Amino acid sequence: MQEGGLGAPTRHPIVWEDPEFTDPDLIDAELRRVFDICHGCRRCFNLCDSFPRLFDLIDESDSGELDTVDSKDFKPVVDACTLCDMCFMVKCPYVPPHEFDLDFPHLMLRYRAMEFKQGKTPFVHRQICQTDRNAKIAGPVAGLVNWATKTGNALTRRLMEIIAGIHRDADLPAYRRPTLVEEKTHPQVNKDAPGHGRKVAVFATCFANYNAPSIGAAALEVLALNGVETEIVYPGCCGMPQLEGGDLKAVADQARTISAAFKQWIAKGYGVVALVPSCALMMKFEWPLILPDDENVKALAKATFDITEYVVGISRKEGLAPGMSPLPGGVSLHLACHARAQNMGPMGAEMLRLIPDTEIAVIERCSGHGGSWGIFTENFPIALKVGKPVARSAKKNEKAHLASECPLAGAHVVQGMEKLEENGAEVSPSRHPIELMALAYGWNGD
User: Fold this and answer.
1) CA distances from 324 to 91, 321, 435, 439 (A)
2) Omega before residue 97 within 30° of 0, cis
3) pTM of this prediction?
4) What pLDDT is stored for residue 424 in this prediction?
């Protein structure tokens, strides 16, 4: 592969069970090899804070080169990586099969796996990753939990900042009851739709299940109107939070459990649809790299679609059911990094453009949030800084609706937009693109 070539990048399996994978000396040698190449290129300077930190570290060293940088100073570079994959997917000219063989995000992941093995992953970070457990505890007292975690609660958020290191101003997702799984609602399937006969098992995802069941309700509505028979399946979290923390065994365990649960549905001819792009990315790409020989994981990866990708697939093959009305005022759409990293094209934008007479303004840049990364005290100001161009674009677009394929990114963009409001005015919440399509079909949001 030539530098700057147009060929698709490839990724190597993550050999997380090999002792050499977490060997500190081998990791340091690889960091130095990769960082030296990055230093000579600097194409990724404006993607996230990892690269400015790295380049400042080198520029301020005695020699102005990597040889006089102490390895202990590499940690802030690693800590700033959100695993958004944008450097690998859209910027780096040296990704494999190029001979330089650079995969910056997976190298950061390897460093974190080393830290996790050494017991250096902070306690709070490890607890936040337990999304299913946390939701089961919070669910029965959701009203109290939502009150305590709401921004503006001077008492509780100040305590959370002191005790847990969670920034008092960072938006935290609320818990909803009933959950998507508990609702067990299935709209009547439109037998007259061109796509009638399709069947999908919808992976609820922890976020849509516990925090935003409206995403799932909207998806079920759109799919049913287009003739698709659906089943809600949720064996557990996809493991993205654990991936961010370097706990690859936990990710592998979840991959085995979830892929085994979907085996029966795939055997019945069902496709699999994920409601959140991070989960689709895990199921399609990360799990097969972590468990390359697991047949259930392979089958699930081939059967999985992002919800926007699936709806666009219906439109291309059979055509969508009629009945959508325009969305007055148009939509400002943020393309989430983990949707872009699926290498499927801007499916969120293509899907929304199927809504008649509705202007779609696309923002193709990282929001800066990075999953749970952006909520911590040391990261939240940086997350706002990285996401400021997105907030500016969304504000400048002046559309009636704001959307992001990633719910966390959408909420973070709203916070960034509110920072730009001189009078402190609130900004309308962001919605998932599938919710806007459902609204265009006449869904009332329930």
Assistant:
1) 37, 8, 13, 8
2) yes
3) 0.94
4) 66
> 359, 384 in Cβ contact below 8 A?
no
CB 254 within 8 A of CB 239: yes
Helix (H) or strand (E) holding 315: helix 307-317
Q: Which of 217, 150, 149, 219 is nearest to 179 (CA)?
A: 217
Which residue bears the tokens 């020699």?
63
What CATH class does 331-440 carry? alpha beta
pLDDT of residue 7: 62
**Element containing residue 230 per DSSP (H, E):** strand 229-233
Task: Give the residue from 368, 364, 348 showing the smallest Cα distance to 415.
Answer: 368
The per-residue DSSP string of 334-351 comes to: E--HHHHTTTS--HHHHH
Handedness of CA 434, 437, 443, 444 (dihedral sign): positive
Contact of 322 with 440, CB cutoff 8 Å: no
Q: Rounded to the nearest 5°, which phi and psi values hold at 445?
A: 90, 0
Which residues make Cβ contacts (< 8 Å) with residue 224, sequence separation at least 6? 186, 187, 188, 189, 190, 230
**How many residues comprise the chain?**
446
Residue boundaries of the structural domains of the chain: 19-117, 180-232+249-317, 331-440
> What would the pLDDT profile of 169-215 be if each residue is shown by its tens digit?
999 999 999 999 998 778 999 999 999 999 999 999 999 999 999 99
Sheet strand arrangement including 331-334: 360-363, 331-334, 401-404
CA torsion, points 131, 133, 135, 141, in degrees to nearest 10? -150
Q: Output b/e per residue, 373-396; b: 16+ Cβ within 10 A.
A: bbbbbebbebbbebbbbbbebbbe
